[in-house]
Design goal:
Blueprint lengths: L10 H5 L7 E3 L2 H10 L2 E7 L4 H11 L2 H10 E7 L4 H15 L7 E5 L5 E5 L16 H13 L3 H15 L14 H12 L16 H14 L2 H14 L15 E2 L7 E2 L2 E2 H18 L2 H17 L1 E2 L2 E2 L2 E2 L2 E2 L2 E2 L7 H10 L5 H7 L25 H12 L7 E2 L1 E3 H15 L3 H18 E2 L2 E7 L6 E2 L2 H18 L2 H18 E2 L2 E5 L5 E2 L10 H16 L2 H13 L1 H6 L5 H12 L2 E5 L1 H6 L1 H5 L6 E5 L5 E4 L4 E5 L5 H7 L2
Parallel strand pairs: 1-3, 2-3, 22-23
Antiparallel strand pairs: 2-4, 4-5, 6-7, 8-11, 9-10, 11-14, 12-13, 15-17, 16-17, 17-18, 19-20, 20-21, 22-24, 24-25
Helix pairs in contact: 4-6, 9-10, 9-11, 9-23, 11-12, 11-16, 16-17, 16-18, 17-18, 18-19, 18-20, 19-20, 20-21, 20-23
């Protein structure tokens, strides 16, 4: 069997290169072969740190019976969703259309020889569970599909044609709605209905961090002094970092918690989660002056710097599994910790272990995830943490996906600039990482989406790359006042408008798969909303109304949905409030800006920009006029609110 994945850069594809399944990468040759041989197409989409992708590989793709069926009757194509999010978005739409519910990973798609999908699932076990189609195992299902394709079953092909027509149909909003601050009332009502009053967060298990929702609650509290927004935000931030989904030993957040208490995670760590949460905890510190929030933000940033970066570039993810099991690297037995603390001269060991939620029976499959009891660290926690790290150093570290992704890296760079306002070393890291990212991913006037570290990028950028990179560049300008960053941001925003924008509608990708960009904040913040943020900033800083106009047209196009269900679009709600309320610009000397970055970031009004000029003090300005100035930074809050 020729190994077609062997030369692929993607770590996920490399993981499957030795499967008995005769995989193809996504290429024209595979689809041509399917037509010529009249074989069904099986498309499997996943990513390298996905736990259930590993399970499906072990149970199905390493299973000889499954592999024999696939090799005989199918053309099998492997896709890394992180490398090709355009392909993934297309087939997630297929899954939603066919199943009336969101998909996930692994994604399993069956298509006709003409590459028209007719069946979509996620993880499919090898053996059938019930007599229904939904309960069919992979062996029974693939045999059934192979026979129907061989017989040219007319119903199957008609269904595929119908699905194709649905996918080609574009829905437009019924009407525009006047943009109003009242959208906040609906948002708060909906978010309260979803809120877990006992454990924090906005869903039942499994629980995801919802960074965009937390960010928007911070903005609402800053704008309206909203006690409910404050309580939901603070309680959730405290609950999430208690231990479990948050790794108290090395730092950094896991992808999500499988239970409602944030205790048991799937142990993979993703760059985008950690970037967005680093930013949220930083802003929470700037808003509420709780030093523990700042500490969490620094721990996240330090974890990615120490474990997940190389040459100032950020790796995309680390795996949940090591040594063949999930969580092995992260958990401890009662006995090994008792012995460790005894050998290092600790007293009251049973009390310490109780404070770390360590018991004989464990809290995860007989072992212990470190978790703070009552969210309080025991005395000498730093010394204990060092000892816990020493135990981990003897273990096999989970697989690291060393892909560099423009969008996710830019999220972390943006977060580091905000964190750097309060501690300068993070600003220096942000500058180094931004320069490294541009040198790696922007070549010959072309921006790229992803590459394996030290490889030449091949996949061109999507809307999310332009959006998050532009946001990071504007953040770089804000915190350094280097106008080169502003010029670069304008260049990328102009290119994004040219490639992806049409009368209020944004496409995520163009070319082979033209996919519409989502406005909901799903896995992470919507690239459309982030682009609105960048457009509003650029329009203000360059005093160029055309950028503000594009932002408004995007908000207007999506206003009907935003007004009805703002809980799904927190990032866009934030941009709507910004558009309605207006920005404020603090003009001051470069020395004054650099000296007072943390105080300026902590101003109550959430929509603040900084601009260097020759003023001796601080000048408060709007879009087209300035209102007042002061030498006393403590008076800025009052002057800003008096300007409205």
């Amino acid at each position: 069997m020729s190994n077609r994945l062997e030369k692929e850069d993607s770590p996920y594809l490399q993981q499957h290169k030795d499967n008995p399944v005769e995989w193809w990468p996504w290429c024209d040759e595979a689809f041509d072969k399917a037509k010529q041989e009249n074989k069904a197409i099986f498309i499997s989409i996943g990513y390298s740190s996905c736990h259930w992708c590993h399970v499906m590989e072990e149970k199905v793709f390493e299973n000889k019976e499954c592999a024999d069926i696939l090799n005989e009757s199918f053309i099998c194509i492997k896709v890394d969703r992180e490398e090709r999010p355009d392909i993934d978005k297309h087939y997630q739409e297929v899954h939603m259309l066919l199943n009336r519910r969101p998909g996930g990973w692994p994604t399993s798609i069956f298509c006709t020889p003409q590459n028209k999908p007719f069946f979509a699932g996620t993880y499919i076990p090898p053996e059938s569970r019930t007599g229904s189609v939904e309960g069919m195992g992979f062996i029974e299902l693939s045999k059934l599909i192979a026979s129907k394709i061989a017989q040219n079953d007319p119903q199957l092909f008609e269904n595929a044609e119908e699905i194709e027509k649905f996918l080609e149909h574009t829905e437009h909003p019924k009407e525009a709605t006047v943009l109003k601050e009242d959208f906040v009332k609906n948002f708060m009502l909906q978010i309260k209905n979803n809120y877990d009053t006992k454990h924090g967060g906005f869903s039942v298990a499994p629980k995801f961090p919802h960074a965009s929702t937390l960010n928007t609650l911070l903005v609402i509290d800053r704008l309206y002094d909203d006690k409910s927004a404050k309580a939901m935000c603070i309680d959730t931030l405290n609950a999430m970092r208690q231990g479990g989904m948050y790794d108290l030993v090395d730092g950094g957040f896991c992808r999500y918690s499988v239970d409602e208490r944030w205790l048991v995670p799937h142990f993979e760590k993703m760059l985008y989660d950690n970037a967005l949460l680093c930013d949220v905890y930083t802003k929470a510190y700037q808003t509420y002056k709780d030093e523990s929030f700042l500490q969490t933000a620094k721990e996240i940033a330090d974890f990615w710097h120490n474990f997940m970066s190389e040459d100032s570039l950020f790796y995309s993810a680390s795996d949940a599994d090591s040594e063949g099991e999930e969580g092995t690297y992260f958990v401890y037995t009662y006995e090994e910790l008792y012995t460790l603390l005894t050998q290092n001269g600790f007293e009251d060991i049973e009390l310490i272990l109780d404070e770390l939620s360590v018991t004989h029976h464990g809290n995860f499959e007989g072992k212990n995830i470190i978790r703070l009891k009552n969210n309080k660290k025991p005395e000498h926690f730093q010394s204990i943490q060092t000892l816990l790290q020493s135990l981990r150093e003897k273990r096999t570290y989970p697989f690291i996906d060393k892909k560099i992704q423009t969008s996710w890296s830019a999220m972390m760079i943006h977060a580091l600039f905000n964190l750097g306002a309060c501690e300068s070393k993070y600003k220096e890291r942000a500058i180094e990482s931004l320069d490294a990212l541009l040198n790696t991913m922007y070549r010959d006037d072309t921006l790229y989406h992803t590459t394996l570290i030290h490889k030449t990028p091949k996949v061109e950028a999507f809307l999310e790359d332009y959006a998050f990179l532009s946001q990071a560049l504007l953040s770089a300008y804000k915190h350094t006042q280097d106008e080169l960053y502003l010029i670069k941001a304008q260049r990328f925003i102009n290119k994004a408008l040219e490639k992806f924008y049409n009368k209020g509608v944004w496409n995520f990708s163009t070319g082979e798969f033209v996919t519409k960009a989502e406005i909901s904040d799903n896995t992470y913040s919507s690239s459309v909303s982030v682009m609105i943020d960048a457009l509003l900033s650029l329009g203000l800083l360059l005093e160029d109304e055309k950028y503000t106009h594009f932002a408004f047209k995007t908000l207007e196009y999506n206003s009907y949905e935003l007004a009805r269900r703002p809980v799904y679009y927190p990032c866009m709600l934030q941009q709507t409030l910004r558009y309605l309320k207006g920005d404020r610009v603090i003009k001051a000397s470069l020395e004054n800006i650099q000296t007072h970055l943390c105080e300026l970031a902590s101003l109550t009004y959430p929509f603040i920009h900084l601009k260097e000029n020759d003023e001796k003090g601080f000048l408060v300005c709007g879009e087209k006029s300035c209102f007042s100035n002061t030498d006393d930074i403590k008076k800025l809050n009052e002057l800003i609110y008096n300007s409205f």
